[in-house]
Amino acid sequence: MDINNSMASSFNASMTINSNQSYVHCGLDSQRVSLAKLIAFIILMVAALAGNILVCLIVYKNTKMRNTLNYLLVNMAISDLVIPILASTTRIVELSTQNSEWRVEGDIGDFLCKFVFFVLDMSPIVSILSLVLITFDRFAAVVFPFMATKLSSRFRKYFIGLTWIIAMAFCSPHFYAVKLQNKFCVMDWDSIRARVFYTIMLMILFIIIPFVLLLVMYSMILYKMKTRPKDLNQTDKGRRRRQLSKRNITLLSFAVVLVYAFCWGPYFTILMVATFKWRWDLSHVPCYWNDIVFVIQYLAYSNAAINPLLYFIFLKNYRTGLKNIIPMIRCFNRYRVIKTARSLMVRNTSQRDNGNTVEIEARL
Q: Which superfamily is assigned to 30-226+242-314 in CATH?
């Protein structure tokens, strides 16, 4: 995505630059660089799409996995599917054509411009809110083990729905600020003050507050796990199995938070610099900024592909579910091969019969 219309990231609209800023002197990437970027995004799209679909299928197929933690992981997987379906696809088209212009014009194009950025910017908000809920689920399980199951099973559907409602509410200004101008989809606020205010609210509500909550809850989880007395009523084997399961779940939730911070940290850093230092005046930005933006965008998008890998690494249920799904895929492929072979046999038999009929008629 050229710097003359967008500083690309998964919060695409939040990082969009007015298209009237021209950087013609920067030129386009070389053919080799463009091809490398294109291949990188294709790999990312396939990995994110396959991984998150598998996560949803595994939980859907296994009724024993339908608990609060897995529902929240599926919620994250659904929000992460936005990345390969919309974001990566858009970038692949832009990289393959070397053109960042919006390809649908008129009222429909303007609506799609608003709607696509609206959905894209919802994805990371839903993810960070889901991370808070996952950590709270772990916090309740460790600190309040007797109340955790009742509370989580009763309110989880409301909490999951609330993540999407909050994301939609915060991204609703996109339908006003995001506009189709000169064939480019840009965020054009009435004033720089409004844009700065929106960015500040973004940082406070979905970065500072969530990570403070995460820090407090993980601190209490670690303290509780260290000070909890051993359960002498259980056998050593049963206690070790239960502790190992809880340990893996806690490590998973912690790893998902760290990966999210690693993938999205550079984006939010650049967002702060663009807002408070440059005040969105990017006329002095050098040409190599395009490459920096590409790396930041790719790192942010890669979070959608890394999350499923973490589930398979830390949770045995997901590894077992994956093994159960792979034979289904093999059986489906085998069925397609058999069906294709049968259709070819029928076609060859039909052609042979037609040939014999023609030969008999010729003899007569």
A: Rhodopsin 7-helix transmembrane proteins (1.20.1070.10)
